[in-house]
## 1
Amino acid sequence: MAELQVKKKRYVILDALRGFAILGIILANFPEFSLWTFAPDASHTTDDRVVQAILTYFVDGKFYTLFSILFGMGFAIQLENAKGKLRTFYRRMVVLFIIGLLHILFLWSGDILMLYAAMGMLLPLFRRLSTKGILWAAAFFLLLPILADAVFGSRPADPIEAAQWQICGLYGITEANFSTWLSDAQSYREVFQFLQQGAVERMWEFVLGHRYFKVLGLFLIGYAAGRKRIFAHLEENKPMLRKLLAWGFGLGVPIGILYTWSSMNAHPVGRVAHSAFYFLSVYPMGLAYAAGFCLMFIRRREARIWKMFAAPGRMACTNYIFQSVFGILIFYGIGLGLGAKVNLLQTEVIALAVYAFQLVFSTAWMKRFRFGPIEWVWRMLTYGKVFSL
């Protein structure tokens, strides 16, 4: 297997794609921070449903797909450069797991970093496979949720849901006050109580949605792309990117209608069909977004928009976690308390405003410093020494 030799230079396209993914992630996550997701369906207006349909069709799962592939690509570069010495790679994963654990316990129940770290630790098992073998393995893991839903249904997740409601009972969290608990919270203690049950709920979501299979499959796609150094040879890969764009949108656009309908109507044709709609729409559209972004980059490499997206992308982990901080300060009762008081469109406008701030802040920060704050700490804990910021 040829070793991947990556010079110590930054590729603007990778940073810009991360920055673009962070935009989609805040749009996907803020409806939960604003507590709109928890509100009874009867309280949702027609306008809310229209915005929800747009978000489900264009955003839901697509940017998480892109973010996961980019993480896998980064892990691939680190693994290939390790040349058999995996200790540093595993330390990096352990530190990321701790960052995710702190995030899920003290800030937001929707953390993904913990799962990224756990699945990242499995990537060395695939190092000896050919690139084609890695892609076949990726397809297997991405298809596995459909089979798991057909065989097991929701049964593996049911005990976790029961444990979640037991924790809710300890603090008086009920179905009646679930949607307003955080907006009514007058102390961080109450927020922390909600986060405890939320961490268990997140484990339920991982099991119910077979998220571990999905993340591993997407990581392997990123691994294959990183090994082939597609990011460094975009011009040579234009034909492949064009095919990916055509096939991704050709498949994802029509089936995305079915996925959106199924998502917004509690899976009327069953979980197996819903998982199939997800597979045939979310992944293709996520890949098409990446391909289209790269093709636009090739056409106008000097455009300012790439550097604009690259700044938050260079500190993607910091921005991801600080989106949670903003969510708390804006929507929870210990902050401005806007949760459960704004509709879905207003929520997304707020999300765009927060992202705009992150664009400006990240640009200013990266002009002065080498790393984002959390990336800096992550690096130091990985190598066990102090680096100049």
## 2
Amino acid sequence: MALSEQQIQTLGREALQRAAAGDFAGAEAGFARIVDDRPNSGQALHLLGQIRLKLGRFAEAREPLERAAKFLPREVTAQINLAGCLIQLGQHEPALLALGRAAHLKPDDPTIAHNTGRTLEALGRAEEAERAYDLALSLDNRLLPSLSARAGLLAARGEWAGALADLDTALVSRPNDPQLRQRRGELLLRQGDWWRGLADHEARLEIPGDRYAPALPRWQGEPLDGRLLLYPEQADIESDEARRDVLMLARIDGVVQCASDIAHHLAAPTIARGEPLEGFAAAAPLRSLPHLLGWTLDSLPPPIALKTQAEPSQRIGWFSRREPPVGLDVERDATQVASCRLVVGDDTWPAHLAASLGIRTLILLPRTADWLWGPNLGTSPWYASAELLHDEDGEGLAARLAGC
């Protein structure tokens, strides 16, 4: 039986009250009943779609929002909500169309311009995305999401000054935002500006995420009455990143927490993750040591002392995703690094082990390499026996392998 107008009004009022009270499931049932009775009601379809968005049921929200956008062609929020739903579903082309309709209805809205930029960026149309962020910022020069997004685009193409300017502007409004501070820190560090960048990079420890931290006071560089734990902050201590950080950064006195296959190489005392931490006064994440101790690329401590000794043979260690030249006899077993006379590797722990052992090592870095390496190629400040090359520099690598 069809609902009367009064029943429709009552259902709508009750559903809105439920939504205002946070009872979205109850609100959805009310709006769904109205839509069943009045399938061409643009407002009811729009409200049903909005409620499903709040419930995180984006696939189910799409159909009523698409119908609402057709029945309410001059309602800007109907177009915006449809676009938001499509973005969540990864449907960026139709989302861009909906945002275009919204921008036509409200051309001076910075949020619409920003979301257009996000969608264009997701489609790989970086230049158009940047123009959209420019428009958003011309309408609101402190729009944080656009400042942050444009900074990312500028940094990706090496325009450090512009990226830093955007992040500095964003930080005027939110000076304690850890994500903005971390991003600014990484930009400064990639340029080799450790003096300004290291403090900002510590903001990463304030950001919730999959990061390990022991139940100990965090060391701030003060004298200790007890042992200092040095630990990789990666949640997976068996990961290549954690192994690499141990070999690269554990350059001071302390007990090193590390994977067992790294521990047997180290002359320093070690401890496994999960072992009791009695007798420790404090702990420091390895990536905080440059900040805590004032390291620079010109004044790094020597590599960690190793029990393992190099006993080179004629073998060449190969620990890179790049395939070795045809005919080159290579060793790919990381346990045999010490017996290699030359090692070629990506920024992975076997290459770090080889360099720590004093073996000539060619480390192949991507253009967005870890900030710890600094901005320059050539002889590494971390290891006297390591040379840094771009991983795309096939000619340079071939020249160094000539005659091997």
## 3
Amino acid sequence: MNMEFYRKLPIPKDVKEQFPITEELSKIREAQVAELNKVFAGESDKFILVIGPCSADREDAVLDYISRLRNVQDKVMDKIIIVPRIYTNKPRTTGEGYKGMLHQPDPNSQPDMLKGIISIRKLHLKALSETGFACADEMLYPENHRYLSDILAYCAVGARSVEDQQHRLTASGLDIPVGMKNPTSGDITVMMNSIKAAQSSHVFLYRGWEVKSAGNPYAHAILRGYVDKQGKSHPNYHYEDLYNLYETYKSSGLANPAVIVDTNHANSGKNYLEQIRIAKEILHSCRYSKDVRSIVKGLMIESYIEDGAQKICENAVYGKSVTDPCLGWKKTERLIYDMAEVL
């Protein structure tokens, strides 16, 4: 093999023992997961909002942002369930660029995955202990969630990973809701097949073990738009797209039909300000059709303290994304309150 085995990393069990979750925090997390499950099962009409930075880049700004969400959550808790995004892994189309805190806990330093593993666990633990939020992360690697599996409330499988067999089978063994994004091509049959795989039980190879998963009944769709063969972005959040997904679900036989709509990425053409309009259009579609409302369980929004994005540098603006552009805090807060008024 033409690679250097640099160092052996600690297994998840060891990291969890070094940075344990308390029984009290575990109960808080379990209660939040149960509340999310009720929404996906159609037992609750609350609306889920998976919201936060495109990628977590520094602990202080992320915790500052989430503490602001805590204040808003307390005011809209009768209608909206906020799940903060702490995305510690960032997929890169060409392999270049910032790959997230798991790789680089300091964006201005060289990759250090040992420090990264510790940093992401400490960040998720602090978010839970300081704000009472169990958060969301992306399963960029089929094993990375193991370092956080006792802390997370929600997990997403990205557009580039959703066709991968190991991601699908791993999702089938998780005990939290897992969103399966449509692939970058936009083919929703790929997404539906991934949901079916995630909802089913499997025997497969995992971390050197032969394991059997129970199947995850809360695996669901995430619509994030798509890119055509000319590289142009196209949305799939419009009423027709949502109703088509409703019809597809109806004939699929899948448990708990549900979709979270991603308001950024190809749905906005990465024009982050469009997320406000897109969110309001989706809510209008939900009011127009009870069938659409029955499957639309929430939104995914990319938001941070400051509007836009910036390049990684020594004098980076505090709370401004170093990857995709995000909606700033003032606009975010106003949007959440506007949503609560019409739900």
## 4
Amino acid sequence: MEALKGIRILDMTHVQAGPTCSQLLAWMGADVIKFEPPQGDATRGQLRDIPGADSLYFTMLNCNKRSITVNMKSAEGKTVFVDLLKHCDIVMENFGPGVLDRLGFTWEKIHEINPKIIMGSIKGFGSSGPYAEFKAYENVAQAMGGAMSTTGTPDGAPFVTGAQIGDSGTGLHLAIGLLAALNQANRTGQGQYVEVAMMDGVMNLCRVKFRDHQRLTRGGLSEYSVPTSQGMGDVPRAGNDSGGGQLGNAIHCKPHGPNDWIYVVVQEAVWAGLANRIGAELGLPELATDARFALIGDRRKNQNDMWGLITKFAANYTKREFMAILNPIDVPCGPIMSTTDLANDEHIRGREMYVELEDERRGKWWNVGMPIKLSASPAKIERAPFLGEHNDDVLMNVLGYDAAKVEAMKVAGAFSAPPKKA
């Protein structure tokens, strides 16, 4: 049995943050009805690589869902929306501030229509506070949530991360909130409003930087390779420093291409074994007892010298060869995996984290798999829906409309955009 079988979600979200959340819930068995305007989710046509086919941006975020198109500007369309609210456990939206309110559907109104329904809402900055009316995108959320100021090198520009922590990270937070609210609704019979702001989600993912922000009021940060001191204020950008209790950094390997790197963590317990292994080859047989590196405090103080020696050793090996040297001596490490590396990786394929799908418009394509593994209810990933593919299915089999009513509503424009004015 699927973990969320029997749960129905009305998904009004678009672009990335909301669809990430609803796709995960669909993979866990929820019946997700993607509620789209007649023109569809904007990402269906964004960054399109095959004419006539939905973009990978859309297809990779909307698997296992059903699509219904509804014109919410028509009275008939609003009727369909109200009827769906009565048949769903969760409704999700990530519209701009006030959009649903202006259509006549405040949270209070939705709660009145179905007291048990849960409403999940994603906003850039939440529904309260001075920033509530501002618009946000992925990189704006990274900028304002603390990620960018702490990512990059100290003498360079701040960087965004390639991981979509603003969008997909917010979607993950919302999924947790919805499941908690669903558990409570099953006990109390009452739904609630669940809100996640992108800025808040990014800040939560940056919590270790706020650990360091407070530590800086008491002294420097010995694990950082860049200078730090008591009262300096902002947590600095520190390149590829581990940012934790154990020293770590990225080491360049041969043939020294853009992704020929391996990340190495030098724990206290592994230093002697690592030093003996690389020291013998570098002509430094006493490296393990070298006063510059003998104790963890010494290595922190002289870590740039230590990384220089490890890099010199690594210059003779590829990242995979260096990994094969480090693993037997228990040094935590991992090669920098490019998109090509991951797409062809035996481990990734074996865990079904890169799965092949197919549809008649796009042909074969690949999606990132389900990262949450449930032993009793593994995910079965299916293709994303075509625009409006399930209109009749949802109207007849969820709402119980007969064919005549569906046809009459079609004629009235409930499911299509109004004709453009001449």
